[in-house]
Amino acid sequence: MERLWGLFQRAQQLSPRSSQTVYQRVEGPRKGHLEEEEEDGEEGAETLAHFCPMELRGPEPLGSRPRQPNLIPWAAAGRRAAPYLVLTALLIFTGAFLLGYVAFRGSCQACGDSVLVVSEDVNYEPDLDFHQGRLYWSDLQAMFLQFLGEGRLEDTIRAHPNTLHWVDEAGKVGEQLPLEDPDVYCPYSAIGNVTGELVYAHYGRPEDLQDLRARGVDPVGRLLLVRVGVISFAQKVTNAQDFGAQGVLIYPEPADFSQDPPKPSLSSQQAVYGHVHLGTGDPYTPGFPSFNQTQFPPVASSGLPSIPAQPISADIASRLLRKLKGPVAPQEWQGSLLGSPYHLGPGPRLRLVVNNHRTSTPINNIFGCIEGRSEPDHYVVIGAQRDAWGPGAAKSAVGTAILLELVRTFSSMVSNGFRPRRSLLFISWDGGDFGSVGSTEWLEGYLSVLHLKAVVYVSLDNAVLGDDKFHAKTSPLLTSLIESVLKQVDSPNHSGQTLYEQVVFTNPSWDAEVIRPLPMDSSAYSFTAFVGVPAVEFSFMEDDQAYPFLHTKEDTYENLHKVLQGRLPAVAQAVAQLAGQLLIRLSHDRLLPLDFGRYGDVVLRHIGNLNEFSGDLKARGLTLQWVYSARGDYIRAAEKLRQEIYSSEERDERLTRMYNVRIMRVEFYFLSQYVSPADSPFRHIFMGRGDHTLGALLDHLRLLRSNSSGTPGATSSTGFQESRFRRQLALLTWTLQGAANALSGDVWNIDNNF
Hints:
By secondary structure, the chain is of the alpha/beta class. The protein is 37% helix and 14% strand. The strands form 4 sheets. It has a 7-stranded mixed β-sheet with strand order 6-5-11-7-8-9-10, with helices on both faces.
């Protein structure tokens, strides 16, 4: 770029064309200013202004002035008449002035009819009342002082930080509790102020709030104090809102982090950042891509909260906890901030004021591609979040470093003869800390084709948060492949062992130890739950303790290095090897190594949970038989496809591509086709959110045990509803049956009873 700029400057210096400076009026936010603009005049080009050549001379000495030409006669006569003409003009002007003064002296102190308002706005139109009255000086002065208020000046000059105050019994706002870092906030929080008694609610999970209510402490109308961790900030705030709370304060509990003296710990004055949108992407264009300046009607995501939320530090939380009365919190709710047990509350009243300011900010995703040899239109995607709220060493820097190293490595392999069968797509995401905005908006923009093109997504976010345990948050389709790759990668902290051997040493059931569901705050979640592309996110974790600096200003390289006690390079290298070998298998294997039969086991496991309620349903004349039937059809379809592949000709490229297409679309088959992506974007029946999911069906069935009436036909706004259950069961059953039909392939051979 510097070379290009240097060449440009040199070209300007060498240009024979003339240069001129003109001033033009600037439209838009700088309207009314004059802007200097350099224009190069080209030969034969039309200039913007005409210039008259002039020569300025000083007084010349006597005798040096050139001889003047003789005046003609009529010019001499005009010179003699000039004084009379001037005198006549002066008399006319004086008379006109006096006449005007007499005619208009009554309006000298007024404006309105006799004052023309000049505006630079070309679209300006006079007010309708412009000619209906006169405003005298006293009126103008009063109007000016009325609209010039101190409050607006103060509002403009003073910043509006979020605040927290004590409130006395009379409702008077008292002492302000200092929020040590005014930069820490909850993006997408509702703005405004709320006042209520304080209640301690553990992690803010639904079971925590139910337990709180069962102990006689009602969250309705109160402020909840909850701990960081276990579930996302968005889930905490949504749960609080569902239980009727006024607002939420979120703090980091020291007992949840490592107390090992050699390892650094989070400062007690540090709050933790986190967004509270229960969803991903831009919440103001839900279901649609917010790029290319597309205009959308004013709509907001249903996942935006209606109550305010604010992060606070452990120091402020300890001051609040000391004021709580009421029942003692359960033992598992206790922490290490006080020398005495935590109480549930209620406590004194607090006033929370949230003044978050929303603004639109452009973001940029960066793409790189290695084109495939045989299936270039099918690509394996790997990505990492590039942005972070603080320094972001663990949050984004490690993942970005691994991504860049994989790009360099695969580029070198291509230079040495490697050509993958399928394309490799490397992506650096922007806007990750605001809810995976970069990745979700890209998915929304190509929603109609990505399930036909993308094979798998591999996320490098949160890759190194420790070195004791290894977790893979993934789709069931990738479980067998992850097991195979773990056997090929050495453990970074157990010499002579593979990662698989390290895992099974702790727990013989390796998948129970390693495999976790995809969380909503992962960029991989939208790939699976929204688009239907299998995805995985790797993470090395601390043993039973969370990395304390995530989403804080203390997430630095130095702190991450200390937490891992110098093993950061080795652990990052292990992640790079895992991801790299996974990419090689997915892009190079003739047949896609996705275990499409795994979902049969997933359905079987969930059916075990449904069986618990079979007696209650039978008493109401309801049955789960159709779910069992659909599950059986899926297992038979998976086995049929496996047999077809086994007996097929290996060198037949047409058949191979056909089988790969059927395999790579299995995840997509589990997106419910009976709900709208705009209304329910996460349509996956196992990992999504909404009434169409298996999880929602199970939650509804649990209401059978708490239905107060106990009669088969009873309905309630909060209890079991038979009509809702029938609809949920139909959505689940036909999505599962549709997956079985699609996997089977030949729809005319499917035996359905109508």
